[in-house]
# Entry
Amino acid sequence: MPEATSSKRARFITFEGGEGVGKSTQVKRLLENLEKRNIKTVRTREPGGTSKAEAIRSFILQGRSESWGPGAEAVLFAAARLDHVNELIAPNLRRGTWVLSDRFHDSTRAYQGLTGGVDDKLIGALERLALDGHNPDLTIILDMDPEAAFQRVAAREIEEGLRQTGDRFEKEELDWHRRLRQAFLEIARANADRCVVISAEQPEDALEAMIWDTVSTRFSELSSEVS
Ligand code: T5A
# Structure
């Protein structure tokens, strides 16, 4: 990452993992914990974070790129990321604001690469292009059985009146998500200095405490901040 030698420099933390493991919930909680300690922090997400990247998000999540295949989708995610890095992540870090991102480049490697079959060379090239040296300082991978995570998402959707039953996921889909889980674990093994895997199968408060412990241990400057 450009500049960045002082122990007081702003940090870039990403959250990764499968669907419904609790990333958004914990990104919000970490933001609150940092702000309580007077650490200026922004929270963002991928795909998204800027107006151009949010437009790409809508296009992809509406299923409009599905027939293009995982290679073209990897390129779209990278295009969104390039704007996100240039317009939001890099400027905030430069001005000393910590950045928490709900998903980042590991999602492309896990979904489109390791699970979707896109060639590692293309994934690597897209990472170099979009990140331009802005690697996360820490990546928290929330890990849990996808079946249990689907139950959480189904419960939320029932609560929001979006669905009536909890049996949305077919076995084939579940197998795909099991492979996705292994992909994130493989990324963690290959990037052991950057990634920390935490079990997401625990109550929100306990998970929050474990994440805070991980972050404050990793960044010793936090222990000198007023709580
Ligand atoms: N994608 C993305 C790619 O394919 N390639 C890429 O490069 C990128 C960047 C994004 C989609 O795009 C794909 C991946 C995704 O398919 P999204 O809507 O952002 O779409 O999808 P998710 O990231 O999966 O978002 P979710 O909101 O579904 O999951 P979260 O954020 O992990 O979970 P969260 O915090 O919203 O919690 C889900 C529910 O569980 C409850 C919450 O209250 C909520 O109801 N919950 C808990 N319940 C019990 N115990 C806990 N500890 C809980 N924590 C949360």
Notes: Strands lie at 12-17, 41-45, 98-102, 138-143, 195-199. The pocket of T5A is lined by residues 19-25, 46-47, 77, 103, 107-108, 111-112, 152-153, 156, 203-204, 207 (CB under 6 Å).
